[in-house]
Amino acid sequence: MSNSIKMPGESGSTIIIQDDEQIDIANQKSDKVRNTQANSRGSGRRLVALDAARGLAVIGMYLQHFGSNETISAIVSGNTTLLFLLCGGISYSIMAQRMKDRETETTMFPARMLARAVFIDVIGYLLILLNTPYGVILPAYAAMFVLALVLVRCSTRTLVITATILTVAAPPMMILGMSVLSGSYILYDIAGGPMSTLALAPAFVVGMAVGRLNLTKVRTALSLAGIGGIILAFGKMLSTFVIPGLNRSFEAWLIGKQGTGSALPTPPDPNAIWPLNTEPPLWNLLFSTAPHSASMFQTLIGLGGALIVLGLVCLVAKKTSIVLRPFAAVGRVALTMYAVQFVVIWSLELAGIEYSVSGIPFGELLVVAATLVIGWLVARLPNGPLESLMRHFDRAFSDYRKAEY
Q1: 210 near 90, Cβ under 8 Å?
Q2: Residue 228 pairs with which residues in a beta bridge?
Q3: Mind listing the pLDDT tens digit of every residue in the chain (405 residues)?
Q4: What is the per-residue DSSP string for 222-253?
């Protein structure tokens, strides 16, 4: 009979030394747990690549609102919103997984998301009150934090299926919502129009699925960029070769169905009871590829581009993260930076000052540089002003105080 000696191992495990071999037989962590701790969800640290991607989304919004170059505007308009939401879905999954690993997810995560939703919703409506020329996505974004709770425990496969269904079904549903929910501001933010939760949900749910992956691996980055390229190419081919003809045929059928000239339907009476006071649904938006139209085709193009950006940023972070640090600084304070642009536009319009860089040499580069500098200065604080307020607000609903996104 061979001799065996029991010795304490690492992390409270028990190791048996038998015939000069050490066999860990208790409290051994499974490969799945090890991988979880090694990847982005369990590291407890911020992902530079994710912050940088979020920062690029914010910079794109600034270029859209302050820039004047039509080519750049065509690239960033609408697409940066989907990139922002994709990053939001990734962060959502990472936070859920971290709380689950700490066995606090059951009650604290829903409470925290509800608190954040309230805070972001209030900030969104305050920005809407400034009445700037641009739409505010924060109310829709806040509703996603609540509605996504029903998906947070679902498998990755279920998330992918849900995102696919939403990409196809959300456009007609949000167009119908534009009509029947136009008099209800809260419901309109959830399911009415291109800036509603329903319209923007596909990107967020895709982000939730991506958040389950190990974003620090080269293979994951290449897969994201490759899948994004396929989606983008598919959307572009449809918008170039299929949609124009299909749109003309559909509009001709729609006009014939609704009538023309004197045969046009009587406009709805705004004083009539619901739903007799609603406008007819704008079904022609189904085949639109314009920015912020939230059609299936515009979503595919924007989401494909967002996945490419995320994949490339993850690749760069793997090689040299120092290049991404200025953009990551903006991404760490994304909520504050998002709100700042509306406050700046409101202030300049109030003062009668033109806020577009039209006519200024290298104006777009100036916008990017200014955004990076402001983001870097704000990021030097322990937390961004709005990020700090949000954390204090949601801590009233939870004792969880670990690092987060």
Answers
A1: yes
A2: none
A3: 444 444 444 444 443 434 444 434 334 444 444 444 444 444 446 799 999 999 999 999 999 999 988 889 889 999 999 999 999 999 999 999 888 777 655 678 888 899 999 999 999 999 999 999 999 999 999 999 999 999 999 999 999 999 999 999 999 999 999 988 887 778 888 998 899 999 999 999 999 999 999 999 999 999 999 999 999 999 999 988 888 888 888 888 888 776 554 445 567 777 888 877 888 888 888 988 888 899 999 999 999 999 999 999 999 998 888 999 999 999 999 999 999 999 999 999 999 998 888 888 889 999 999 999 999 999 998 889 999 999 988 887 765 444 455
A4: HHHHHHHHHHHHHHHHIIIIIHHHHHHHHHHH
